[in-house]
Design a protein that fits this description.
Blueprint: E1 4-7, E2 10-12, E3 18-24, E4 34-39, E5 46-51, E6 57-59, E7 67-72, E8 77-82, E9 91-97, E10 100-101, E11 105-109
Parallel strand pairs: 2-11
Antiparallel strand pairs: 1-3, 3-8, 4-5, 4-9, 5-6, 7-8, 9-10, 9-11
Amino acid sequence: QVQLVESGGGLVQPGGSLRLSCAASSGKFSDYAMAWYRQAPGKQRELVAIITSGGSITYAPSVKGRFTISRDNAKNTVYLQMSSLKPEDTAVYYCNLRDIWGRGTQVTVSS
């Protein structure tokens, strides 16, 4: 069973940046789309960004122009570079591959 492990979360001030990483333990990583989701307290989990096996990318309107998703198939890793962070970006961020989810990493944007 493939496992996904996120890292890189933390506390950052508004306007700051963070880079999240998600490493897959095994499998044909390059064959699948990878996605980042987030869930804020009291809200439903929402899609942040997705990158297909061919490199096509889609962003949620709320993060477009501020976040960048990328993947390194040689390292079985997907990244989420987050810039110009806002308090409303505060959430637990989850990595997703098909029906597999990571445990999440907390991102808190606060002064």
